[in-house]
Specification:
This protein folds into 2 domains: 3-189 and 307-390, Aminopeptidase; 191-302, 2-Layer Sandwich (Alpha-Beta Plaits). Mean pLDDT is 96; it is low at 397-401. The chain is 34% helix and 26% strand. 50% of the residues are buried. The protein is of the alpha/beta class. Strands 1-2-4-3-5-16-6-15 form an 8-stranded mixed beta sheet, sandwiched between helices. A 4-stranded antiparallel beta sheet has the order 10-12-8-13, with helices on one face. A two-stranded antiparallel sheet has the order 7-14. The protein contains 10 helices and 16 strands. The longest helix is centred in the last third of the chain and has 22 residues, at 271-292. It has helices spanning 3-15, 17-29, 38-48, 111-126, 149-155, 215-233, 271-292, 311-325, 343-348, 378-390, and strands spanning 55-60, 64-69, 78-84, 136-141, 164-177, 181-183, 186-189, 191-200, 204-205, 240-249, 255-256, 259-268, 295-302, 307-309, 330-332, 351-359. Helix 4 links the parallel strand 3 and strand 4 (136-141). The two termini are 28 Å apart.
Amino acid sequence: MPAMSQDELKGRAEALSGDLTAWRRDLHRRPELGFEEHETAAYLKARLEPLGLDELREGVAQTGVVGVLRAPESRGPAVLLRADMDALPIQEVEGRPYVSEIPGRMHACGHDGHMSMLLGAATLLSERRGDLKRDVLFCFQPGEEGFGGADKMIQDGVLDLADVGEVYGLHLWSTMKSGTFQLRPGPLMAAQDEFEATFVGRGGHAALPHQTIDPLVAAAQAVAALQTVVARAVDPLEAAVVSVGVLEAGTACNIIPDTARFHGTMRSFREDVRATLRRRVQEVIEGTAAAAGCKVDYKLHKGYPAVVNDGAAAAHMSELARDVVGDDNVIECPPMACAEDFSYFLNARPGAFAFLGAGGPDRPGHHTPEFDIDESVLPRGAELLARLALQPAAPSGRARS
């Protein structure tokens, strides 16, 4: 793309700043949980319809919205650009002019900004349809926060609406420096699984412990033993996490309970490490229960795969990001142990996922009542998404890093 065209695109993206902020605030006021995003979908449809897209579909994976913009003469596989739609069950702090109007619901992860940026990219590209060399899918995805909406959209045929060859996504990150794009080739975000274990013993009077089978002590021993899984079963050069966040047992200090329960999470970046965690966590829990004379009900809840960026696509995205914010503001970041269901798109097609800094280290983090973003970065995200669609695909023949 000639330099003048780049300047024009940047200026047009900046000119959309007021709209981007207004869209984000409208969506922020009316947050909806996963697969409940009916009002959100209607809002998106109302703003996509005037753009003259070639196709606009509702109800993809229940509440998702997909717009398709066809190139005049397609010269390669289509590109899919994705934004997630759902909010979280969090009560927002008061005092903001755009505070959530739904009690106990809040956009506390930036998805309102993601939708705004993708609306911006759709606006920019609809104005430059003649410059497109490939078809573009604008994918507004429901149910990212634990519901696996990306997988459900794929099952519902979103990748078949065009010959999709690449997928890209952006995530605003409140604790990263505003205006920086941060990504890396290979693993970027972790795979996530959850586990639950209920230890069943025989309760009784705490003064007569020899007449009981104490599930609380067994559960506590298992929690402590789980700390050895990463230390002793995982290569020390690999990253992994096993954490227990819930431990429940008992009703009184002088009663040994019949049951004790805990609930935890596993994080990893490689499938072989993930398999090791799954196996060893179950073995430790069941072995500790057996040694204590308890029965145990163990459940594994399989979560999202790791977000693994294609090497060539990540380099392509980084190069275009430099056109948006300059060399110094494109950073190769370390992997993050949080999980993201964009991983399903990356398992299905080559592509890349990146963070857009929207604050700094002193700003409240994600999934908190105080969460907020620096809205001035929204034009930068819309511009990068548009550039990804206007440019040819990243080099072919790539392999995962």
